[in-house]
Every structure is written in structure tokens, then in C-alpha cells.
Write a structure and sequence with these properties.
The protein contains eleven helices and 22 strands. With about 400 residues, the protein is an alpha/beta fold. The strands form four sheets. Strands 1, 2, 14, 15, 16, 17, 18, 19 and 20 form a nine-stranded mixed sheet that branches. An eight-stranded parallel β-barrel has the order 3-4-5-6-7-10-12-13, surrounded by four helices. Bound molecules: pyridoxal-5'-phosphate. Belongs to the Orn/Lys/Arg decarboxylase class-II family.
């Protein structure tokens, strides 16, 4: 992989004509170390947020051993990149063939479910010569509120706590270890999201009267974006620890989490080129069908900076972007603040695109990614920072 110090180095030396992905392995390593040292349990990485093999290898090398996979393609990918990783198949609705391949070929033992039908499917697909598996870890997904989060995950999956008893009791019968999992929605802006969800876990355990071995609080841990500046992640961990300790579970029960965004948002940015300007709208060479899916479809704001050898003295003004395809839908409203003299041929770095950026890219209309370049400068924003006195000690930059 090509290496440079920063976006300017890439712009000057490569003059990229397609969007260049700038990756910062040091930022992903730092986030992984933060979770491993501060989360009061086991941290996995939710591969869907960014399935780049380089990133998976970076996280594995940093010490992360557990990966949340949601499709058989993700199972194969992680097995290939990190053969000794523990894989947890946390999609509550799976194809029987995917379960069978995951279990029999790739050694996956952890599966999530939210219905008796899915439980039956897992039991059937993991049986050998008609004999049921005895080494399954089954996590029942509860439906919890997404009201504290920017992206809801409250509609599609999960059994409500007051309907979970039959599923928990049936799963207990066949599981070697029984877990309860949930997802509070992505980019949870308050730790209370986890406190409320753990209260639902308590209600479900009490109603079912089962022994629970694992509580998996899912993903949802935030990153930092313009207009979305969360508090310290330690405050989230404290609420989770308190809620977990208050549950009626065995002393040896385990606590897990599955962050996606929080581990990889800072990993990459994209260097785009302005192809045309019309007033306060810039035509750039990446968009809704590329790394800017969230900017187009849910008006997510990302930090931007003009990448020019000589800094502009012009005042900032607000722009919106058209992407490269012929679709009207390929539009990013922003607003994105950039110097008023920006023009065709200029480069812009768009930051904090490591999560759900590159992962969403299509080749629609023939527009796709250019080079991936490793850079060593800091991401455009961070929830994690290193103190100068003790470079190995990870602290959070923002003290709210
Ligand atoms: C089951 C599951 N776990 C973890 C994640 C990662 O969530 P986030 O990126 O918000 O941390 C997701 C995201 O959709 C998910 O569906």
C-alpha cells in the first residue's frame, strides 16, 4: 500500500482523478486498545461497519480476538484474514446453508436469534448425523428502544422483553451457554440507552427464570461528527457496568459488546476532487453510491477541509455537493463549510468515513474508488487521544 504523511502529500504527488481512501491504522489500533483496556468485558468488532481486510488485520494485531459477523461472506473473510479469531454470527435471521457452513466448516459456535423458528433452524443446521450440537452459544436478541440513537435499529430484529420468555426457555434447553443481546441503535448519544436496555434484559430474565451466561450490549457506541459530539465513552462503560452488576445472573456471567462505528470511524477519510462549481454547489467525484451514502441518504454531516498547497485566505461559506453519477439522488446537502474561493481542480478531504463509508460503495455508473493510501497524520476528529507525557496511555480527548 502507498504511504504518505497526509492528504496534501497524496494530492500533490498522485493528483488522484478518482476518490482516494486515506487509511490510518494507528487510529483503529488506538480505538481497539481503548475498548480492550476500558470496557468491563469482551469487545468484538462488528465487521459490517468496515470489512476491509487491512482493518481486520490491524484490529487482530492490536489484540482484538472476537468478531461479530453477519453473513457467510463476512465469516469467510475474517477466517481468511485472522484464522484463529472467535467469530460470532449475530444476524438474527440467517440462511440455513450459512449456519451450516459457519458451524461445520469455520468453527463458529455463537449464533443470535429472536424466534423459535430461528432456533429450530440453528439446531437443524448444526446437527451431525441427526445428533444435535452440544457446544452452541445462543444469544437471544431483545428489541430495545433506539430513542437515544441517531440511527434506529428498533424495528427489524429482536423479541420484546415481555414476549421473550418462551424463546429464552427453549434456547436454554439446547444451548451450552445462553446469552441475551440487543442493539440500542447506531451513534447512541447518551449512556442512558444502555441503562434502559439493561433494565429490559433484567425484566426478560426474571420473566423467563433462566440462567443467563452472557449479556451482549451490542454496538451503538458513538464517534464524533459535526453537530454530534458525544460525552466520554467511559461514562457509557460505567452505566453498562452498573446495569450488568445489577442483573440476576451468575457470578461467572460474561459481558460482551460489539462496536462497529466506534472502532473504525477514525480509520479512514476520502480525498475527493472538485470537478465543477455552480454557486454554492460543488460537483465532486464521490457521492451517494460511493463513500458518502450516509451524507446523502440521512443527511449525516462529516468534517471537510480544503487540501491546497497554499492555504486559502477566503472566508468560509456553506456548500452542498453533487456526486459523480447522473442521479438527482446523488446529492449531499451538508452544509459543508469550505473557503469561498474553492474551484474545479481543488481537492477536499472528507473525514470520519471509516464506518459505513467504504463499506457502502458501489460501482454504479462506473464511478468507483481510486487508490488506498496509508497516512500517518491524525484523523480530522477523535474520541481518543494520547497524552504527550505518556504516549502509550490512552485518554479521551474530550472531557464534557
Ligand atoms: C448486531 C449488530 N451488532 C453491532 C453493530 C454495530 O453497530 P455500531 O456500528 O453502531 O457500533 C450492528 C450494526 O448494525 C449490528 O447490527
Amino acid at each position: 500500500m502507498l504511504k504518505h504523511h497526509n492528504a496534501l502529500g497524496v494530492a500533490l504527488s498522485l493528483r488522484p482523478t478518482q476518490p482516494a481512501t486515506l487509511v490510518r491504522p494507528h487510529a483503529a489500533r488506538r480505538a481497539a486498545r481503548f475498548f480492550m483496556s476500558k470496557f468491563p468485558g469482551t469487545s468484538m468488532y462488528a465487521v459490517k461497519a468496515n470489512p476491509s481486510p487491512d482493518l481486520i488485520r490491524t484490529l487482530w494485531d492490536a489484540g482484538l480476538t472476537h468478531f461479530d459477523v453477519a453473513s457467510i461472506a463476512e465469516v469467510r473473510l475474517v477466517r481468511d484474514v485472522a484464522p484463529n479469531a472467535t467469530l460470532c454470527f449475530m444476524h438474527p435471521v440467517k440462511a440455513p446453508e450459512a449456519i451450516a457452513e459457519a458451524y461445520h466448516t469455520h468453527g463458529v459456535r455463537v449464533f443470535s436469534l429472536d424466534s423459535i423458528e430461528e432456533l429450530d433452524k440453528i439446531v437443524a443446521a448444526t446437527a451431525r448425523d441427526g445428533v444435535a450440537a452440544t457446544d452452541l452459544t445462543l444469544c437471544v436478541r431483545l428489541r430495545v428502544s433506539s430513542s437515544h440513537s441517531k440511527l434506529s435499529l428498533a424495528s427489524k430484529f429482536g423479541v420484546p422483553a415481555d414476549e421473550a420468555a418462551p424463546v429464552l426457555m427453549a434456547a436454554r434447553q439446547v444451548a451450552d451457554a445462553l446469552g441475551i443481546c440487543f442493539h440500542v441503535g447506531s451513534q447512541a448519544m447518551s449512556p442512558q440507552a444502555y441503562g434502559d436496555a439493561l433494565a429490559q434484559v433484567r425484566a426478560a430474565i426474571v420473566a423467563a427464570g433462566v440462567t443467563v451466561d452472557i449479556v451482549d450490549v451490542g454496538g451503538g457506541f458513538p464517534s464524533v461528527y459535526p453537530g454530534m459530539e458525544p460525552g466520554r465513552l467511559e461514562a457509557y462503560f460505567e452505566v453498562i457496568h452498573r446495569g450488568f452488576e445489577a442483573l440476576p445472573i451468575s457470578y461467572s456471567a460474561e459481558l460482551w459488546c460489539e462496536p462497529g462505528r466506534a472502532l473504525c470511524a477514525e480509520y479512514s477519510s476520502v480525498l475527493v476532487r472538485v470537478e465543477a462549481r455552480k454557486g454554492d454547489v460543488l460537483y465532486i467525484n464521490d457521492g451517494a453510491y460511493g463513500a458518502l451514502f450516509d451524507a446523502a441518504h440521512i443527511d449525516w454531516r462529516f468534517p471537510v477541509t480544503l487540501v491546497r498547497e497554499e492555504a486559502s485566505r477566503a472566508k468560509p461559506m456553506e456548500f452542498s455537493f453533487w456526486g459523480p453519477t447522473c442521479d438527482d439522488m446523488d446529492y449531499m446537502r451538508g452544509p459543508f463549510a469550505l473557503p469561498a474561493d474553492i474551484a474545479a481542480g481543488d481537492y477536499i478531504e472528507i473525514g470520519m468515513l471509516g464506518a459505513y463509508g467504504a463499506a457502502m460503495r458501489t460501482g454504479f455508473n462506473g464511478f468507483t474508488a481510486g487508490e488506498t493510501v496509508m497516512v500517518s497524520d491524525e484523523p480530522m476528529d477523535t474520541l481518543y487521544a494520547v497524552t504527550e507525557e505518556s504516549p502509550d496511555k490512552i485518554i479521551q480527548l474530550r472531557q464534557h
